[in-house]
Amino acid sequence: MHLSDILNHLGENREDYFNAVSPPIIQSSNFSFKTLKEFRTAFSAEKDASIYTRGNNPTVAILRAKLAALEKAEDCLVFGSGSGAIAMAVLSQVHQGAHVVCVQSAYSWTFKLLTEYLPKFGVTHTFVDGKNLEEIESAIQPNTTLLFLESPTSILLELQDLKACAAIAKKHGIVTAIDNSYTSPIFQNPIELGIDIVIHSGTKYINGHSDVVVGIVCSSKAIIEKMFYHELMTLGAVISPSDAALVIRGLRTLPLRMKQSDEGGKKVAAFLENHPKIEQVNYPFSPNHPQYELAQNQMSGAGGLLSFYLKTDKLEKAEAFFKRLKYFLLAVSWGGHESLILPFCAFYNIPGKEDSQMPLNLVRIYVGLEDPDWLIEDLKQALEVV
After folding, report:
1. Do 325 and 354 fall within a single domain?
2. Do 198 and 344 fall into the same domain?
3. What CATH number should be reported for the domain holding residue 360?
4. In this predicted model, what pLDDT tens digit does every residue of 68-91 receive, in sequence order?
5. Residue 9: left if φ>0, alpha if ψ -120 to 50, beta else—which one?
6. Residue 49: per-residue pLDDT
7. What's the CA gap between 18 and 31, in Å, rounded?
8. DSSP 3-state assignment of 64?
9. How far is it, in rounded angstroms, from Cα 376 to Cα 368?
10. For the segment 133-161, what is each residue's pLDDT rounded down to a tens digit?
11. Are residues 347 and 294 part of one domain?
12. What is the pTM for the complete model shown?
């Protein structure tokens, strides 16, 4: 389908709701039936019938249809957060005694799921360098059921060769899943590259307005149906109809926002690479990125998220840089209209965080929808103190 058709028309049967341009918010927890026959028919296809909003809701169903089409998937489920979506996808592919291979620089809550939660149920894991295909294959054990990827990763911006990873997994009869939050479906469609399950923190680019927390899983009908009846219906980590409507609103402008953020990201990355106070920039669409060619092959854009190292090993200088900034908001996450900056020196001097510290001079920024030249001026003046 054409992208504009997906974003503006797919799933929206306007004649069913008074030809309203925006889809209605069906803010109901429960749905009634006129006859016992209708009730029985609905229960025979609970995934697609509106019986109870924990399972299916008309507003959420519109969003599911659009997201599946965007990711070139057969079906989709929507959850209450990105972490919830990751957990549901992983849980759907493991059992007691199973083993998971995961890239070592994955999202911190993916790491916690594998290292702290799943071991309680006999699920083991091996972390691998996602850039090394031999290491990935050698980590696969007879009880491995899942290869979990994140490309690019959201801090160091490392990629995995998705086609090659999918081929390795298929050779060993295991399922592949990827956190695709960095690119959004606009810039990368892993299912077309052979990946089985695609996950998003829809909180980021897909919603795009910093006002909804949402997670997304796209896959085949068989995988989604199993996940619906087991993980979603049992654990109930669902999104509300009102939040689903906000995400549908966000989708209307997704291509425009991605284009703006991508253009801004490239411009800011180029500025930083040429600044004497910057040691290194991590940005997959920079020709200096070690995996630039791979990025060009499997991504059509990089968006506005990048990281870099300040040329200092002094905590005071790093802190002085952040204090000078005027326009970047100190915050986690990304994908909204506002530009953000995440200082890893902020995690220093926090009891219990010593083992998970990144270098104090590591900085992650998200270039939002503002004028990139305006943002560059802010970075330029703040870098004077480094």
Report:
1. yes
2. no
3. 3.90.1150.10
4. 999 999 999 999 999 999 999 999
5. alpha
6. 93
7. 20
8. helix
9. 12
10. 999 999 999 999 999 999 999 999 999 99
11. yes
12. 0.95
